[in-house]
């Protein structure tokens, strides 16, 4: 059994991104917008800014009050859409209830939609002709690649069907020639489905939800969960201690998928800058 070291893979990739960015005539630029004061979102936004510094990127941070109107937010996005220094625009989700998140995502120019949440980028992912992939599923694919884990012809089961993780994750595994099943909270006999997985990706957000009897011997288990257990300790969707010895590879929480997510955001922002340079040639 090998514990996948997301921190090491992520650090390695950030070094590569930094080196590639340093060769460009201008720095890649990322704008991060946070509306309201959700503590978890504040931490994510802070880490995104730190990652930009680490990779030598230009960054702008907008911390707006929860009372910000949708119109004000759309105006800011419009301004950033027209700003050549900005290659990626990220609105931290969730936004307060009075703001329509679909309208906000759709307002971001597809070239700067480094989360790949807008219709155009989602459609490209579906077809398999994409520049940006949502950061968490992209990070999972990088982890599999870093450990030379074969995907083609394998049974992959994704538990969770969110737009941010489950659905794009399933598409990426499909493009890599896995036979993919998407399971979710309404799936009947879930254990029968997950036990069939050579590669099991869990993104349900329930602490220690994946138990030993749900995992096939020798499976690759990827845990996207970021939960708190009954003692307030960070834990994943997988009952790690009980499951780990049954697997061939497993990601820990923390230190597995988590560190990859922001690294993939940097990768997408770098990609956007490169496309802008190409277009202006
Ligand atoms: N909220 C939780 N995950 C994400 C993410 O990947 N991007 C954005 N914008 N908001 C999030």
Structural description of this entry:
The chain is of the alpha/beta class and 281 residues long. It has two domains: 24-109, Rossmann fold (3-Layer(aba) Sandwich), CATH 3.40.50.10860; 135-258, Rossmann fold (3-Layer(aba) Sandwich), CATH 3.40.50.720. 41% of the residues lie in helices and 17% in strands. It has helices at 6-22, 39-55, 70-81, 101-107, 119-127, 135-146, 166-175, 190-194, 240-243, 258-279; strands at 2-3, 29-35, 58-64, 88-91, 155-159, 179-183, 199-202, 219-223, 227-228, 234-235, 247-250. It has a six-stranded parallel sheet with strand order 1-11-8-7-5-6. Strands 3-2-4 form a three-stranded parallel sheet, with helices on both faces. α7 links the parallel β5 and β6 (179-183). α1 (6-22) packs parallel to α10, α2 crosses α10 and α6 (135-146) crosses α10 (258-279). The longest helix has 22 residues, at 258-279. The protein is globular and about 50 Å long. The chain starts with a strand and ends with a helix. Bound molecules: guanine. Residues 90-93, 115, 135, 164 line the site of guanine (GUN). Guanine is lined by residues 90-93, 115, 135, 164.
CATH-defined superfamily of the largest domain: NAD(P)-binding Rossmann-like Domain
> How large is the radius of gyration?
19 Å
Highest CATH level, the class of the largest domain: Alpha Beta
Q: Which range does the strand content fall in?
A: 15-25%
Based on the structure given, which CATH architecture of the largest domain is correct?
Answer: 3-Layer(aba) Sandwich
Order of helices and strands: EHEHEHEHHHEHEHEEEEHEH
Structural class category: alpha/beta
**Which geometry do the CA atoms define?**
globular
Counting DSSP H or I runs of 4 or more residues, the number of helices is 10
**Strands of the biggest beta sheet: in what spatial order?**
1-11-8-7-5-6
């Amino acid at each position: 059994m090998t514990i996948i070291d997301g921190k090491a893979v992520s650090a390695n990739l950030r070094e590569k991104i930094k080196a590639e960015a340093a060769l460009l005539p201008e720095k890649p630029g990322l704008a991060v917008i946070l509306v309201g004061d959700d503590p978890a979102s504040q931490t994510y936004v802070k880490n995104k800014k730190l990652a930009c510094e680490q990779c030598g990127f230009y960054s702008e941070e907008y911390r707006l009050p929860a009372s910000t109107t949708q119109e004000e937010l759309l105006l800011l996005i419009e301004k950033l859409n027209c700003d050549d220094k900005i290659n990626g625009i990220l609105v931290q989700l969730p936004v307060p209830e009075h703001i329509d998140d679909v309208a906000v995502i759709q307002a971001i120019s597809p070239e700067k939609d480094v989360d790949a949440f807008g219709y155009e980028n989602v459609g490209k992912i579906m077809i398999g002709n994409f520049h940006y992939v949502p950061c968490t599923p992209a990070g999972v694919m990088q982890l599999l690649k870093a450990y030379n884990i074969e995907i083609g012809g394998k049974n992959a089961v994704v538990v969770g069907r969110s737009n941010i993780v489950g659905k794009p994750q399933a598409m990426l595994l499909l493009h890599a020639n896995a036979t993919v099943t998407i399971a979710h909270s309404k799936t009947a006999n879930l254990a029968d489905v997950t036990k069939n997985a050579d590669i099991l990706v869990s993104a349900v957000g329930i602490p220690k939800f994946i138990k030993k009897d749900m995992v096939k011997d020798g499976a690759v288990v990827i845990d996207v969960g970021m939960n708190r257990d009954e003692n307030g300790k960070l834990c994943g969707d997988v009952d790690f201690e009980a499951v780990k010895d049954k697997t061939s590879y497993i990601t820990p929480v923390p230190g597995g998928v988590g560190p990859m997510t922001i690294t993939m955001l940097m990768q997408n922002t770098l990609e956007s800058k490169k496309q802008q340079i190409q277009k202006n040639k």
